[in-house]
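User: Please fill in residues for this 654-position structure.
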């Protein structure tokens, strides 16, 4: 007789079949893809800043020079730049190529955030953690830089994940992987060592629960001291002599203030938001996550998740606090990057708890988080206000006007790398950095000897280097005069000439214009890029402003594209000269380029338009009258006529 086994028919009490792993991973995969897109868009929009150019010089100088500099006092760690040097041999040294490894590390961080939260928390919190990591403006910022911090965050999360895995299922391979991850973190940045006190304190407090794994953990921890010994010896003198760090501590010096600063900066990088309120919101969300994990029902959580993540914030912060109190100026959010994974996971746990108990509170809390976290992206990508110095265009301008017999004066040794990275025909460089420690007479003699062979001097410095400029300013004012100075978003290019030498430098806009407003500021001309031809593209226009007098007030300008009927089809409002160079501090004769992005209305039809300008005081909104020129309309001064030959693509506007 033949027997057959049949699957019983499903009944109402039969539990639903579990979702397949492929279906479960669809949403996390989409979130990881979102993180990659956000990190890749506009990756090469900004020029390299001073620190990035320093990194570019590392990797393009050759292996011997790279190793020789990386093992000096005060260097953060050699591994990232060694990896970047190998990558640049294949991909080149363009801005996109140099930044792409950080994009890769940042994207893997998003995926690992999901995996770690799945192990430590639950599915809902894991998806939220991945979403917060994907859209974190702090992580996006460092994932678009030639710096090691995206890799450091990834290694901190990866090492913590491996520790939990090895404690639960001890084994030689797992402990070896943990030792490797922590060692790589320490050689990526010296502050990777903060993982050790965090992990040690956690295991000691949970030693009873992990008794079978203690022997392997002790061996792994002992092995971790070996790779750190050389790194510690390199930095020993720097820790003994704080002046070798060449940094100035300006942040909070109390634990609560440091915690609030970390919470706020990890959540939003925009400085003009109310700091106290923003910090309170993120600190409260950390507390909510701890409480949600501590008092969750049995079986719904790992019993030690709150302890592990809480120590991940408290222990590294306490170590740095002790160093600060001892006089070492070492508090900065990027140095404490190892704490960021714990913040993100606790925020995700708090939001997940809200969604279970009070769904009505989840949406406003998540909305507030995304809004605060998204301000930085809105300011930079939509409004076009950038925070990095524009060395690319500053050096391009200098290349276009400099001639044989000129030299470039650099106030900070690191800026030499930015200049040489972008210059096609570098001039001789006089580095003024070593002069800062000299007395005034000795400084003057050294300057005279260093600059004597040159006819004209070009001083190139960033907006944050004003203190570096002061020691050399008296000599420059006595021996030369400023013939021309132009700002390029945070970088000043100033032509210094002796009295008997004529100047030849002048701004060279592609479209000359002669419009002045209220006898205060003048538009010398403009450069305009091509009209947008694809989705999400602005129309870029650069105005060249000149101060006719000491303005004494901050002025703003409204740049508009209008048709014959006066309908506005594109508009860009903002301070004259940009956010960094407000007019109240201008001196007569100063020339400042002003980059603006016009988002044209989708579907703008073909036709003839007028590009007009309105200038007004920022505080009172009072319009500055146009001096001796015909206006394009009741309020707009005509800059030029623009012909649009094809419709603007839908989706090009905001």
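Assistant: Residues filled in for all 654 positions:
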């Amino acid at each position: 007789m033949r027997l057959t086994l049949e699957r019983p028919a499903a009944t109402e009490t039969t539990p639903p079949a579990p979702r397949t792993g492929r279906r479960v991973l669809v949403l996390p995969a989409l979130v990881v893809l979102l993180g990659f897109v956000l990190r890749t868009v506009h990756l090469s929009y900004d020029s390299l800043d001073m620190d990035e150019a320093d990194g570019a010089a590392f990797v393009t100088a050759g292996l011997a020079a790279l190793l020789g500099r990386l093992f000096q006092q005060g260097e953060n760690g050699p591994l990232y730049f060694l990896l970047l040097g190998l990558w640049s041999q294949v991909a080149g040294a363009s801005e996109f190529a140099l930044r792409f490894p950080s994009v890769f590390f940042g994207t893997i961080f998003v995926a690992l955030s999901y995996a770690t939260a799945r192990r430590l928390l639950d599915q809902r919190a894991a998806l939220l953690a991945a979403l917060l990591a994907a859209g974190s403006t702090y992580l996006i910022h460092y994932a678009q830089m030639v710096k090691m911090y995206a890799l450091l965050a990834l290694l901190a999360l990866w090492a913590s994940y491996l520790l939990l895995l090895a404690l639960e299922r001890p084994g030689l391979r797992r402990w070896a992987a943990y030792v490797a991850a922590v060692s790589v973190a320490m050689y990526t940045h010296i502050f990777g060592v903060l993982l050790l006190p965090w992990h040690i304190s956690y295991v000691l407090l949970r030693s009873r629960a992990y008794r079978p794994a203690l022997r392997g953990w002790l061996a792994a921890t002992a092995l971790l001291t070996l790779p750190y010994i050389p790194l510690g010896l390199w930095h020993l003198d720097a820790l003994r002599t704080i002046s070798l760090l060449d940094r100035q501590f300006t942040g909070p010096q109390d634990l609560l203030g440091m915690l609030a600063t970390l919470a706020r900066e990890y959540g939003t990088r925009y400085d003009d938001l109310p700091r106290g309120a923003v910090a309170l919101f993120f600190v409260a969300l950390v507390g909510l996550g701890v409480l949600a994990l501590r008092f969750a029902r049995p079986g719904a959580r790992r019993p030690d998740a709150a302890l592990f993540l809480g120590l991940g914030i408290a222990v590294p912060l306490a170590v740095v606090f002790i160093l600060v109190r001892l006089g070492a100026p070492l508090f900065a959010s990027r140095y404490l990057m190892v704490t960021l994974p714990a913040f993100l996971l606790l925020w995700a746990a708090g939001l997940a708890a809200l969604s279970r108990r009070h769904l009505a509170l989840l949406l406003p809390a998540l909305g507030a988080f995304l809004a605060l976290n998204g301000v930085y992206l809105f300011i930079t990508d939509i409004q076009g206000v950038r925070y990095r110095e524009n060395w690319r265009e500053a050096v391009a301008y200098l290349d276009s006007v400099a001639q044989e017999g000129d030299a470039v004066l650099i106030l900070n040794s690191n800026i030499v790398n930015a200049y040489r990275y972008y210059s096609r025909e570098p001039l001789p460089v006089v580095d003024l950095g070593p002069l800062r420690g000299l007395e005034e007479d000795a400084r003057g003699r050294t300057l005279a000897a260093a600059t004597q062979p040159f006819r004209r001097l070009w001083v190139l410095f960033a907006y944050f280097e004003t203190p570096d400029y002061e020691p050399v300013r008296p000599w420059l004012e006595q021996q030369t005069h400023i013939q021309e100075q132009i700002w390029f978003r945070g970088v000043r290019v100033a032509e210094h000439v002796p009295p008997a030498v004529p100047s030849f430098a002048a701004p060279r806009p592609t479209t000359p214009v002669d419009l002045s407003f209220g006898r205060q500021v003048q538009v010398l001309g403009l450069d305009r890029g091509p009209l947008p031809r694809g989705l999400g593209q602005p129309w870029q226009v650069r105005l060249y402003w000149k101060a006719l007098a000491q303005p004494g007030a901050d002025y703003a300008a409204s740049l508009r594209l209008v048709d014959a009927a006066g309908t506005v089809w594109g508009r860009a409002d903002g301070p004259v000269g940009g956010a960094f160079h407000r007019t109240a501090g201008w001196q007569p004769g100063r020339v400042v380029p002003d980059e603006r992005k016009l988002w044209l209305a989708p579907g703008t039809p073909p036709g003839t338009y007028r590009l007009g300008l309105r200038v007004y005081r920022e505080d009172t909104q009072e319009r500055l009258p146009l001096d001796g020129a015909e206006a394009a309309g009741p309020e707009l001064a005509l800059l030029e006529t623009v012909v649009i030959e094809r419709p603007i693509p839908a989706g090009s506007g905001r």
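For context: Residues 1-20, 242-248 have pLDDT under 50 and may be disordered.
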